[in-house]
Amino acid sequence: MGIKRKQIVITVFCLISLFLAACGKQTDTAAYVEQGMEALAAGDLAGAKTALTEAQKLSPDEPRILRSWGIVFYQEEDYPQAITYFSEALSALGERGEEEEKSVREDILRYKAEAETKAGNYENAEADYDLLISLDDEYVEHYLLRGKIRAELGNIAGAAEDFRTVLAMAPGNLEYCEDMYLTLAEKGELETGMEFLDVILSSSPQTEEEKSRYAAACLEKSVFQIKNRLYDQALSTVRKGISMATEPVLKELRYEEAVCHEQLRDFKTALECFVAYRDIYGTEEAVEHEIAFLKTRVNVTEYVVEPEAAGTPREHTDTASHGEPAEVAVEGNETEPEAGDDIGPGNEDEGL
């Protein structure tokens, strides 16, 4: 959940210890809770359960102990049980208004919202994030996570609204932009997602991580442009990506570069790109199919496929290359495609 979340968890842990230790008869409870949290941090779930069992014998309705039980079950991926304990902790906390209680309440709500999400209870998770935002409207990840939940619920307009809030609150956070785009892309909302992808493409990457993210964004953008037959724009985008890409994104971009030239009817350059691709990555069924087709367009014989060459068809599910079939030239009856037709031997639309 990020640095702020870690700071909150640490603060809540300190408050738990101080609160329980302040109650004379609950000093042992505080010690057990501390043991339980230390065991939990070390990944010792059995040790955590032992300590929390002893703590709960002394203070069965203490919200911080119930919260700790919720975390144990969350770590065990028993989300329904975790939700039960987080809900009990919130009920036990009641309407206490002290600042320290507010921090505990927010922390429990975050855990509960995450558990609801993991369990697929998206409506409950959205309600939890609504409440969290009402308690702290400056915590950017609340909007990001609620937006992702809204996308799961099919509320794309609501998701986009939350994502724009994230963009306004953290305009330079490209990791958020990537996450928001991918969330929308997974739901087939590519056009809506372009708003956030374009933020990455308008950046000036410096670090290797930034360059890698930029190149991946170029690949996504070029696929969108090719699907919309914006081949000149796609070629420009691909070239920008190639200048910063490393494998495996570089391989995908090189393939898209060849596709763009083919669709722009620059058959000679397309053939050269596909042959160069084969030279680098080895033979693939789809690429050999493209090469064979393009030879019928440029009338060349120097690009020979070695008969012993063998390979596996390329795994490329993120790229849309072609549209409707074009007529292939036949000896004595060569037919040129009409303007606007997509070019390609099989015109496979592989999709995002």
Q: Any low-confidence stretches, pLDDT <50, length ≥5? A: 1-25, 305-335, 348-352
| Total domain modules | 2
Structural class based on helices, strands and sheet pairing: mainly alpha
Kindly state the number of beta strands.
Answer: 0
CATH fold category name of the largest domain: Serine Threonine Protein Phosphatase 5, Tetratricopeptide repeat
Q: Report the total helices.
A: 16
Q: What series of H and E elements makes up the topology?
A: HHHHHHHHHHHHHHHH
What's the level 1 CATH class of the largest domain?
Mainly Alpha
Shape: elongated
Relative helix content? 55-70%
**What is the rounded distance between the termini?**
28 Å
The radius of gyration over CA amounts to 28 Å
Task: Give me the CATH superfamily of the largest domain.
Answer: Tetratricopeptide repeat domain
